[in-house]
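Hi P.,

Sorry for the delay on this. The queue was packed all week, but I finally got your sequence through. Input first:
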Amino acid sequence: MAQTDAVEQQLIERIDANNEAALDLLERTVDINSGTMNFDGVREVGRVFAAAFEEIGFETRWVDGAGFDRAGHLVAERAGATDDPARPHVLLIGHLDTVFEPDSPFQAFERLSETAAKGPGTTDMKGGNVVMLYALRALLEADQLDALRVTAVLTGDEEKSGRPLELARAALVEAARGADAAIGFEDGDGDPATAVISRRGSSSWRLEVTGVPAHSSQVFREDIGAGAIYEAARILLGFYEELREEPNLTFNPGLIVGGTDAEFDAAQARGTAFGKNNVIAETAVVTGDLRALSSEQYARAKAKMRAIAERSLPGTGAELTFSDGYPPLAPSDGNRELLEIYDQVSRDLGHGGVEAVDPLKAGAADVSFVADLVPRVLDGVGLMGEGGHTVDETADLTTLPSQTQRAAVLLYRLSSLLRDE
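Then the structure:
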């Protein structure tokens, strides 16, 4: 650690001294069920983290989620030295909810060994929130926190976003305005040797196909045509053949129903169909998702998919619609710059280098909503582990102090590097 200065050494010492308290906070919050639709649980986890932020001088507020049918969000702010207008503004991003609702069998923190613990949200992402908090606490205890203006947003619906999405992410977007850097504390791909500077966005699509119903013996007749199921199959095969080679682009049909009559319930993501082998299908519905690395790639993919859908077989018609969800976080020079600083921090601390994760290994996340507002964005710096979104979610507890050290020293260095611009 020869490359760390006296303040950075103090940060390391404070983080090591506080590690047991950090572990206690992790266990306490993991033991509170906060599945996205368990609004009381999400609010309770929010109260625990709000108290922790307030202990280190932050002002907190709860953004009620009634307008987007979710529990809401926690926003914590600390102005820093009010007589220093040049202090950089950093946005920190986490979330309170998990994918595990109250009916899940996976409910509690379980210590497996000195170095590992299972539990819902250990890595995704109550562990990341703890890394964030204890990095900030170390900065406060080293008298360095006033050099930054810090806003932290912990959303309550990252795993299952409320609608309308514009309202559900309004608090996060507002917090990003004027920020010099944004750091997300997700766990990335679970490898401390990587961090995230680009994420693919995700949107959904719906294909509705119609055909001419008739006896199956007349299929392909000029005035009857191929039917809805053949047309749906043609379109899906066209997507596969014409788009699958484009880098970082994926498109997946997740559900299909078709027949003489087909009904699809979008809210429940389920459908029913009726048909007979000797009747040409009149209706087919297909739904799926689309993931791309940039807005430009989204636009190209949508245009190609629409063109494929419009090449209708005889006697058929198709309507393809898109519903945008999480935007992409495209790689940028600012993001690369922030990763370079983080990489150097990690090397100076003796934790090894950090490189950008393959965006195919990084799903959508809240940090993408600030991509067009903040010049430098980095994500995937939270608590590491494996098995996210499964009952095998396990945290590597050895990375709690090391990830917290990296975050604290990164923030400390940003307080001067961004001021010098």
